[in-house]
Amino acid sequence: MGVSFSQGWINANGIKTRYLHAGSKDKPALFLLHGTGGHAEAYVRNFAAHAEHFSTYAIDMIGNGMSDKPPVDLEIPVYVKHLKDVMDTLGIKKASVSGESLGGWVAAGFALAHPGMVDRIVLNTAGGHTAFPEVMERVKTLSMAAVEDPSWDRIKTRLQFLMHDKSKVNDDLVAVRQRIYKAPGMVDAMRRTLVLQEMEIRKRNLLTPQQWASIEAPALVLWTSHDPTAGVADGKKLSEMIPNSRFVVMDGCGHWPQFEDAETFNRIHIDFLLGRS
Question: At what angle do helices 76-90 and 102-113 cross, to 10 degrees?
Answer without folding.
Answer: 70
